[in-house]
Every structure is written in C-alpha cells, then in structure tokens.
Design brief:
The chain has 328 residues and is an alpha/beta fold. It has two domains: 186 residues, 3-Layer(aba) Sandwich (D-Maltodextrin-Binding Protein, domain 2); 128 residues, 3-Layer(aba) Sandwich (D-Maltodextrin-Binding Protein, domain 2), CATH 3.40.190. The protein is built from 16 helices and eleven strands. A five-stranded mixed beta sheet has the order 2-1-3-10-4, sandwiched between helices. A four-stranded mixed beta sheet has the order 8-5-9-11. It has a two-stranded parallel sheet with strand order 6-7. Strand 1, helix 4 and strand 2 form a beta-alpha-beta unit. The radius of gyration is 19 Å and the shape is globular. The chain starts with a helix and ends with a helix. The structure holds beta-D-glucopyranuronic acid (BDP).
C-alpha cells in the first residue's frame, strides 16, 4: 500500500505527477524502478531487460515501469522511498548509501579492489553474498551488484598528477562520509552535492572538479565543462540494485524467486553493456579533446592510507577488507 501521506510528502513525486501513476501501479502488479541515469545507460538497460523477462515469464501479470534520469529524486531520496514502499526498485551507487548500510563500507573505501575482475569476483562470491542480505535490516532487499568501473578525477583547471595538485580544488563528492574523508585526505575541499547538480556546478564554477567513471563523465556531458581527466582509479565501489522489502515480501514465493533469479541473470547482461559503454565513452571523451593524464596512483594511495586505517579501526570493516585482499 502506498499511503497518501508518503506520496504527498515526496516533492519529487508530486512535481512529476508520477505519484498518481505509482499509486495505480501497485494494484496492477507494476514494479516501479528508478535510476539517476538516462534510459540508454547500462544499469537502466539491465533493469529493463529484467522487467521484460519477468513480464514474459508471468504472461504480463507482472511488468516493470522505469523512471530513469533521476525523475524521482536523488539516490538518498529514492532509497528511502523504496524503504517505505512508495516505489519498488532503486538502482543506486553504493558509495551514496554506505552511511546507512555499514556492511557496504569496505567496498567503498579507496583502493580496495585490484582491478575490475577482482571487484566482480568479490561481488559474485561469498563476500557479496554476505553483504546483500544486510540491506534487509533497513527495509530493502539487496538483489544484485552492478558494475561501476573505477572512479578518477576530472576538473576544469589543470592536470592532476599528485595530491599536491588537488590543493584548494572544490571537488564534488556523493553525500557519504567515506567520500568526504577520502577527498579531504587527498588535499581537496570535498563538496557533497547531488548528482543531478554536478554539470551546472562545474559550469558555474560552484565546484572545480568531480570524480566518477568514464561512462558517467560522458553520459552527463560533464566532459564539456571539465576538460582535464586524471586517472587516479581511487574507488571501485559497485552499484546496488535494491528492492522495497515490504513490496518484495508481499509477493508470492514463486514471484520472489523469479525476481531474484532475473536480477542475478541481469548481472552478466549489465556487464557486457558496461564493457562496451566504458570503451565508447572513453573514446568519445578523448575525441572531444579532453586532456588525459595518468596520475601517480601510489601517491594517492599513500595520501588516503591514514583515513583508510581510521575506518579499519572498526573490526567488522577491517575483517571484510582483509577478506577482499585475500580474495583471488
Ligand atoms: C555514478 C553512479 C550513480 C551515482 C553517481 C554519483 O552510477 O549512481 O549517482 O555516480 O557520483 O557512477 O553520484
């Protein structure tokens, strides 16, 4: 059930008029899914694939309705909307939700993964399987991890080689303590602002820099206003596909199994799309004349070491980081 109070309380829903559609959809077994990315982004396409499969398997009894491009608000908003069953599925960046879900913090710490293969194996293996159920403590079902590549630095001023080049740069970060501390440790001035405001922030010089992966840098067109990409590869946190636990628990056990199975199957679909998107995004950006440089990643790793050690004073975080290190 979607309460009127919750719907009215969410400005984004009221503003788009989507609240009414969502209220209707509950009765019709329509599963609503949101994403901040546009409709052709790999995460959105993977969820669309999942919805089509479920619709086919249930002969149309259950279908998905997608709300891409951040239509229903920021990731912090949509996670809460899903917890209270105002919407059903939120695909969000793990970096943005780890204040609320401490078990995910080790995945968002800097330089946790050796490479993309390592990240995928960790998420697919027992570490990923241990973390996903922890979303249930706060009203969500963790369905899957998706790829997000590695994040690097981009800015409108100059190439960044070492943390010394970050001094006084206002760098936008997702609203999460790990990110704020990470960028501060690198010598920057970490500025948490919502994803949807980064382009304008760079354009109007409210911020000087941001950090993200190639696919996002390209699809948001931020490369048009930040002309220096410096490869730091500082964070390999994945994306998370989360479902409202209340909605999930209200489904039959066969439907629950189907949703879990299709979410799992959507992971390799997403990854194939991701590999393609990452390569084409990088090429598009370089062709558009963005200056590329390889940063001194060892210097960045050293700069964040004390901050990482502080987080690892927590035994649970330290244990997971050690398991990740030891993972093939
Ligand atoms: C992108 C994630 C997206 C986040 C965004 C951010 O795919 O979910 O909202 O980063 O930095 O890579 O906020």
């Amino acid at each position: 059930m979607i309460s009127r109070r919750l719907l009215l309380g969410t400005g984004a829903l009221a503003a788009t008029g989507a609240g009414f559609a969502l209220a209707q959809s509950a009765a019709e077994q329509v599963i609503t899914a949101v994403d901040v990315h546009p409709r052709d982004y790999p995460t959105v396409e993977a969820v669309r694939w999942m919805g089509q499969e479920i619709e086919r398997e249930t002969a149309g009894r259950i279908s998905f309705r997608l709300y891409p491009s951040g239509q229903l608000g920021s990731e912090t908003d949509t996670v809460n909307l899903a917890r209270f069953q105002v919407l059903d599925i939120a695909r969000v960046y793990l970096g943005a939700v780890n204040n609320m879900f401490p078990a995910t913090q080790p995945l968002a710490l800097p330089y946790t993964f050796r490479d993309e293969g390592h990240m995928r194996r960790v998420c697919d293996g027992d570490i990923g399987r241990d973390i996903l159920p922890t979303f249930e403590r706060r009203g969500l079902v963790g369905l899957a991890f998706y790829d997000s590549g590695f994040r690097s630095m981009y800015n409108a001023r100059h190439p960044i080689h070492t943390p010394a080049d970050m001094r006084d740069l206002k760098v936008r970060v997702p609203r999460a303590d790990i990110f704020i501390e990470m960028l501060d440790a690198m010598g920057a001035n970490a500025t948490p602002i919502p994803f949807g405001e980064v382009f304008t922030g760079l354009q109007t010089h409210l911020i000087d820099a941001a950090e993200n992966n190639w696919a996002t840098f390209q699809s948001t067109r931020q490369y048009e206003v930040a002309r220096y990409w410096s490869q730091t590869d500082h964070c390999g946190a994945p994306e998370a596909l989360l479902m409202s636990k209340a909605r999930f628990d209200g489904l039959s056990s066969a439907d629950r199994d189907l949703i879990r199975a299709k979410a799992r199957e959507s992971v390799p679909i997403m990854r194939a799309l991701w590999d393609q998107k990452q390569a084409t995004a990088r090429q598009t950006v370089l062709d558009a004349g963005v200056h590329f440089n390889q940063a001194d990643t060892e210097a960045f790793r050293r700069a964040v070491e004390p901050m990482k050690r502080r987080w690892m004073a927590d035994d649970a975080i330290a244990a997971t980081v050690r398991r990740i290190d030891a993972h093939a």
